[in-house]
Amino acid sequence: MDNDPARLPERLRTMPSRLLAQAAGYAQRTSADALAAFGLRQHHYALLAALTEFGPASQSALSDRTGIYRSDLVGALNELTERGLVARSPDPDDRRRNVVNISTAGRQQLRRLDTALRHAQEQLLAPLSGPDRQRLLDLLGRLLAGRDH
Amino acid sequence: MDNDPARLPERLRTMPSRLLAQAAGYAQRTSADALAAFGLRQHHYALLAALTEFGPASQSALSDRTGIYRSDLVGALNELTERGLVARSPDPDDRRRNVVNISTAGRQQLRRLDTALRHAQEQLLAPLSGPDRQRLLDLLGRLLAGRDH
DNA sequence: CCCATTTCAGCTATACTGATATGA
DNA sequence: CTCATATCAGTAGAGCTGAAATGG
């Protein structure tokens, strides 16, 4: 039998990319759970956020503003449309495009999601003091700013 | 046309779980690329690491020691076996079990992977000073230590 | 009988690629 | 003709669930 405590190999325990992955996985799970209570996923939230903050946009612009691939956007927008949270209409100025608008219901839903996500982040960061939270965000920001790819 | 710089909604830019996800994604990509040069993935590395650090083990024990699900382990071990990096043999003491061993070639490969991953982590952390790297790892560790799920 | 181990078959959310039809 | 847009089809790695077969 294996009565050993579940040890992790040192190589894995100390690898920065692993630690980051674990922390991010935990964070994603926490946020995803909060959104799942509304039957939505991260893509949906990102789209609602982009639409309220920047106004109506083409799918191409939404892709740029959320980082969601154009191909994945189609499905996410279909789901938001089914739920009445956004509306797609053809752009009269350029008939290749759709103009996507957030609805009143979409704005209301976004407010609820904001609250739920605020709680999720709070729970997530609970082990860290205010200054430590800021330090963490700062360090992550600097890590990302230094990317080459 | 959309000549706007690719702005991100503030909600997304400032959400801790998003920042973490982005940093982790970048880190994972960097490590995965290093492993892909050898035709391997993270699961393979984790398994080779567990086998060298803790010695031969059943698949069940390997699952505990790497966090890889038993169902996913099967395929990863098949691939390692095909490449001659590990060997599976039935456990004489418990015929439900396989004993997995790392081969000499597996040990050699692991050394090469270690080197490649060391470079990847170095590149990843390049924007941070030594003390800042330590602070980041410490903060992530504390975040993970405070989990409830 | 119940429990552990391995394997198989499947699903999910996310990231990503390539092809196609339509229109600028 | 070339380029942009939206859509569709498909791939990939990783996390996860459930069921089946075998054996303790």
Q: Note the run of SSEs of chain A as H and E.
A: HHHHHEEHH
What kind of assembly state do the chains in view correspond to? homodimer
Whole-angstrom Rg of chain A: 19 Å
**What would the principal axes of the Cα set say about the shape of chain A?**
elongated
Q: Give a count of the beta strands of chain A, DSSP E runs of length 2 or more.
A: 2
Fraction of residues in β-strands of chain A: 5-15%
Task: Provide mean pLDDT of chain A, rounded.
Answer: 94
Helical percent range of chain A?
Answer: 55-70%
Per DSSP, the total helix count of chain A is 7
Q: Which strands sit side by side, in order, in the main sheet of chain A?
A: 1-2
Largest interface, C-beta within 8 A: A-B, 66 and 65 residues
**First-to-last CA distance of chain A:** 45 Å
Structural class of the helix and strand makeup of chain A?
A: mainly alpha
Provide the low-confidence segments of chain A as ranges: none
Q: Biggest sheet of chain A: strands, sense, closure?
A: 2 strands, antiparallel
Explain what you see.
2 copies of one chain form a homodimer. The first copy, chain A, is mostly helical. Helix content of chain A is 65%, strand content 7%. The first copy, chain A, is built from 7 helices and 2 strands, in the order H-H-H-H-H-E-E-H-H. A two-stranded antiparallel sheet of chain A has the order 1-2. In chain A, strand 1 and strand 2 form a beta hairpin. In chain A, helix 2 crosses helix 6 and helix 3 packs across helix 6. Chain A is elongated. The model of chain A has no long low-confidence stretch (mean pLDDT 94). At the A-B interface, helix 1, helix 2, helix 3, helix 4 and helix 6 of A face helix 1, helix 2, helix 3, helix 4 and helix 6 of B. Chain B binds a DNA duplex (24 and 24 nucleotides) through helix 2 and helix 5.
